[in-house]
Amino acid sequence: MMPSVTATLRFDNRRLRTLLIALATLLALGLVLTGSALLGEQATRPDFQARLLPPGIDHWFGTDTLGRDLFSRTIEGLSLSLWVGLLAAGLGTLVALVLAVISTLGRPFDAAVGLLVDMILGLPHLVLLILIAFALGGGTQAVIVAVALTHWPRLTRLLRAELLQIINADYVRLSYHFGKSHGFVLFHHVLPHLMPQCLVGFLLLFPHAILHEAALTFLGFGLTPGQPAIGVLLAESLRYLSAGHWWLGVFPGLGLLLTVLIFDRLGASMQALFTPREAQT
Amino acid sequence: MLSASALRYCHDRHRDPVIDSVSLRVKAGEIVGLTGDSGAGKSTLGRLLAGLLRPQAGRIELDGTPLPRHGLQPVQLLMQTPELAVNPRWRIERILHEAWTPDTTLLEALSIRRDWYSRFPHELSGGELQRVTVARALAPGVRYLIADEISSMLDALTQAELWHALLQVVASRRMGMLVISHDAALLSRVANRCYRLNAGQLDALA
């Protein structure tokens, strides 16, 4: 046996690579967030002498119809979308996890959660979103709550199935048999098993959350038009695309695409870290 | 003494019970064999005795008192497939230490090597992993073992080694044991007496 195998913590190539990807994506997200903090003021300052300029040295992504720098607006919009997406998807995942745990408590609980899931899934997504956002009076908070409250059902179903499978697994039964408490089993056997599903669910929610934020904003129930959200930028660009001002739509759209891809990458590498078998083969 | 009286268990209410009025006694220091056709309910009986399943009728008692509801169970089950008995996300060291910290003599007796500690279960062979689950189940306070086909997937040599080590520990601690197996030769070697489970009933074998 090679001596290196005896080390208590091993990092083979795959683990190291996934860790590096995770760090790089976190770094990229951090850059967007700090960028928005630095460029925030620039994003809303109009300059009527520099209206609708194509991309150039002074304005990397060009300017819009009020002469505002599109690069700052894109970064600002991305960070706004990121926050809305993160919070909404995070809350949605939390709701799904809690409801999934509740559904495993007994038959009546399971039936109640199942009914709730079917009810929400049966309603048209956007209608429910508009209703909740409208009832809460619009704005960033309303969008976050609306998206969080409408996006949990599918993940709840998935997590419930996973939970049922794991609490009946032999090694979980044996853990109780070794005198381990419910808390120990929950935190050491059950939740680590659910982490990848939660992360994947979170990452699938994330683009949805951003898109629905944009949809709500577009329809006038979401963020105010003054806020440089990606949804607002894209909606604004529609009017100018036919006039040849392509940069108004292309750059914010590309930014959104990259953000979603980065998150996807992060999720994939995290999943590999959490499931050793897949991570090593 | 581990005693089961008039046990009854059905998987499905509308079908015949798998276990029907089965009574069985295993004394401390005694090794009892259990055989029977596939699907006869041997593993179900094993799970009932270990307290992993609740019988629909009948009692299981340890020295005249019911099995404890909490804490380390004095009757432990060793399973046929060790892969299902361990958390695939845990490293061997954590798995081995879940119930207690096995001493070096036991680890040596079961030839469990230190360099397995940092591995995941899928990086061990079935026989190696089975030895880990055996060591894990031998916590102090465990007085009876139910060995459910624990060596059926091992080659003859590994099988002999595993039984040699296990029987030594069981004898030195005066533990009782129920050995479930298809292998008549194995049962005749290790068991003091044998039963056959047939249509939910236990028949004593000569």
What tags apply to this protein structure?
heterodimer; A: 281 residues; mainly alpha; MetI-like fold; 11 helices; globular; disordered N terminus; B: 206 residues; alpha/beta; Rossmann fold; 6-stranded mixed β-sheet; 7 helices; 10 strands; 29% helix; ABC transporter domain-containing protein (chain B); ABC_transporter-like_CS (chain B); ATP hydrolysis activity (chain B); nucleotide-binding (chain B); ATP-binding (chain B)
Describe the structure.
The complex is a heterodimer of chains A (281) and B (206). Chain A is mainly α and 281 residues long. Chain A has a single domain, classed as MetI-like fold. Chain A is built from 11 helices and no strands. Chain A has helices spanning 13-39, 70-103, 107-122, 125-135, 139-150, 153-167, 170-177, 182-219, 230-241, 247-274, 276-280. In chain A, helix 1 crosses helix 2 (70-103) and helix 2 crosses helix 5 (139-150). The two termini of chain A are 21 Å apart. Mean pLDDT of chain A is 81; it is low at 1-8. Chain B has 206 residues and is of the alpha/beta class. Chain B has a single domain, classed as Rossmann fold, CATH 3.40.50.300. Chain B has 7 helices and 10 strands. Chain B has helices at 42-50, 82-85, 92-96, 104-109, 126-137, 156-172, 184-190, and strands at 2-9, 19-26, 31-36, 57-62, 65-66, 75-78, 144-148, 176-180, 193-198, 201-205. The longest helix of chain B is centred in the last third of the chain and has 17 residues, at 156-172. The two termini of chain B are 22 Å apart. The model of chain B has no long low-confidence stretch (mean pLDDT 89).
